[in-house]
Amino acid sequence: MKERSDVLNLVSSDDGVAQVVFMWWDLVMDPDGEVILSCAPIWARPLTDNNDVLPWRDHWMQAVYYLPKEVPVQKEEKLVLMSQHDEYSFWFHLFRKDHWLEDGNCEHPICGCGLHVAFGRTRIGAMNDADRNYKYVSVLREYVTSDSICLCLSDGSLLGPLAARLGAKKVYCIDGKALTRHVIQDYIKHNSLQDRMVVLNNIQELEAVVEPHNKVQG
Fold first, then answer.
1. What is the per-residue pLDDT across 37-73, written as a single tens digit (0 to 9) for each?
2. Domain 124-209, architecture per CATH
3. Which keywords appear in this protein's UniProt record, sorted alphabetically (predicted)?
4. CB-based burial of residue 199 (10 Å sphere; 0-12 exposed, 13-18 middle, 19+ buried)?
5. 78-85 and 90-96 as β-strands: parallel, antiparallel, unpaired?
6. Which terminus of the chain is less hemmed in, N or C, by CB atoms within 10 Å?
C-alpha cells in the first residue's frame, strides 16, 4: 500500500509542550452521512447531533502516538499537524506554521535505541508510570543497603538499575533476551552504573561468577 498523508492546520489553545497525538476513527458509511461508525470518545463526536445513535465500538480503540520530538508551543500559535500512514502504521509530525514546508519529507520514525523494538507501547507506558515506579522504589528503600547483593530475575526489568541507584553494593541481572538485555545495558551505561551492575544471559553464567547471597527478585 502506498504511503498517504494529510495536513491539518491548528491553533494552540494554551502554552505547553506537545508530546503525543490522540487519534480515533470516524467512518461515514453512506453519501448522506446518516450511517456513521465511530470510536470517538463521548466528548468528541462532531459528525452528528444525535450522539445516542452512536454505539460504543469496544473492538476499536482510540490510540496515542508519540511525536518524534516534543514541540514547545505558545497560546494561539499557528501549527501544522502532518499525518501519514502505510499498510501497517500511522505516524505524525507537528510543526510551527512558520517552520513548515509543504514539500517537506516527513520520514517514518525508525527506532535506533532498541527500546521501541524490545517493548510494546503498553510496556513502555508502564515503565514511565511515575506512581508505579514510586511504589517500587519505596519497597526497595526498605531492603536495599550499601552492603546488599541483589539478584534481578526478569527480562527488561528496571528493578535492578533501581536497586543500584539506591546504593546496592552489587546487582546481578539475568536477562535471557538479547533485545531487552541491550536496552538495560544502555540504561546502565547512561546512568554510570557499570561498577555495580552485571547483566548475564542465564543462571548458569551467574553460578560461574558469584557465591550464594540473599536475593531480590524482579
1. 778 777 776 555 655 566 666 667 788 888 888 999 9
2. 3-Layer(aba) Sandwich (3.40)
3. S-adenosyl-L-methionine
4. buried
5. antiparallel
6. N
Confidence of residue 90 (pLDDT cuts 50, 70, 90): confident
pTM of the full structure = 0.58
Cross-strand pairs, 20: 66
The answer on pLDDT for 91 being more than 70 is yes
Q: 38 Cβ partners below 8 Å, 6+ apart?
A: 24, 25, 26, 27, 45, 47, 54, 57
Separation CA 143–CA 92 (nearest Å):
44
**CA distances to 7, 71, 76, 95, 186 from 15, in Å:** 22, 11, 8, 15, 34
